[in-house]
Amino acid sequence: MSQIPEHIMQRLKTCTNFPTPPPVAMQVLQLAQNPDIDLGKVADAVSADPAIAAKVMRIANSAMYARRRQSANLRQALITLGLNATLTLALSFTLVQALKKTSTEGFDFQAYWRRTVLSAAWAKLLASELGRRDAEEIFLASLLQDLGMLVIFKLWPEVYDGMSPFKIEHPRICQHEQNCIGSDHRMIGSALLGIWKLPASLVQAVQHSHDPSAAGVEGDDKLFVRTVALSGELSDVWLGARNDVTLRRVGQQAHKFLGIQPHRLGEMFDLVREQLPVAEELFQMELYDADQLQDITDAARETLMVRNLYTIAENQDLKGTKKQLEEENSELKTENIRDPLTNAHNRRFFEESLAREFEAATKNGWPLSVVFVDLDKFKEVNDTNGHQAGDAVLQTVARLLRESLRDTDVVARYGGDEFVLLLPGVDAEKANHVGTRVCQEARSRKAQTADGKSVGITLSLGIATCDSGTRFEDPKALLAAADAALYESKRAGRDRFTCHKAERAA
Fold this sequence. Notes:
Blueprint: H1 6-14, H2 23-32, H3 39-47, H4 50-60, H5 74-81, H6 83-100, H7 109-129, H8 135-143, H9 147-155, H10 170-181, H11 185-195, H12 200-207, H13 221-238, H14 244-258, H15 262-283, H16 290-306, H17 319-337, H18 347-364, E1 368-375, H19 378-385, H20 387-404, E2 410-415, E3 418-424, H21 428-444, E4 446-448, E5 454-456, E6 459-466, H22 475-491, E7 496-499
Parallel strand pairs: 6-7
Antiparallel strand pairs: 1-3, 1-6, 2-3, 4-5
Helix pairs in contact: 1-11, 2-3, 2-6, 3-5, 4-5, 4-6, 5-6, 6-8, 7-8, 7-13, 7-15, 8-12, 8-13, 9-11, 11-12, 12-13, 13-14, 15-16, 19-20, 20-21
């Protein structure tokens, strides 16, 4: 994973509008680093904040710890939880308390805290299932895994303009953040924890919070990181991604990286449902009503317990055949979605992607732009220089389009000399920037033919954007609007882009 840019690190170190951990949190942290600390000092530190002391008492007597004997006072609660657990939980509460005070307009804080608390509940359960002695540290790491999003919103609020990052898959939002500021919330969050001098285990877990494989992490730290990453994946299942494919994928990850069998993971959904009211009370937020919880657990149990995810995978006689088929299918899949000449995606892949992204954009209210791209006077290139020269031009254009866009965008050859671009999360203003950049880049490029000739390139573009203020009935209407805008560019003299003016919502 790349290092955080120096200018971002300097801004984090000098920022004054983002809170540092409160004094009680730092005192708790110092106590945690002392192996000889006694109960009296811990009790004194925790008692300095009555609200935190009450929460420690509550969690010691909660279903999360399933103790038969109730703790009557703080000292008993400390004995029940253990010193390390108490210190870590107290630190969790103080940090959350401080971070909640950062809430300002423009950021979906409800979605942030919903995912945060749900991830922490899953992390605690997964760690307990694995018999981890550092379950509370894992709990805290999961609480902090999206901290970088709060930082980005504070320092670079334009990154999340027109979108809720919690309605987009986290790998995609990380790519979007990288495109905007040269880093992402994982790196920024881990850097801030380092500045706060929090333990290295927390820093590393946040840094790798979207990688359940924990690639590059060594030793026992790998299981720590994997547990935190899976807690985020499981919380996303609860928050909306509850289709069979997603459930199977998460189930397979839990089995592969944590050794948790699918039937047991299905049972754990029920356990999380039971523990969520505790987490809601501790962090003073509402996540779900009872009916929602039951629907989620029923769906998960059906997929993870009733349907056998691993029948084929665990059949030793079929493993070799399975691997061969997977390799062959991968090759066929690539052939089926790519244009063989330009290596751009093909029309079929684009249309499927457009339908999927249009549905997501309409449902969640984030923007979506489509750009039609036409090569100017391409017939003359073929007639004058031959079809090999035409092929070279097409390949050059495909390459410059890919280089001009994000990895999350789609570049497809629509047919003949036409390409089409799909830009999820891109509003009209940003689509204009794309149009300008692509046209300028085309003018600076020349295609090299086999006989050494250079062929100049200009492009005509048509842009259409679907957002909260622009109506399109379906994906075909959005595509037709971009096509109509392309026609206007060609009629106006080519080598330019035109934006479709759609009906504005009231």
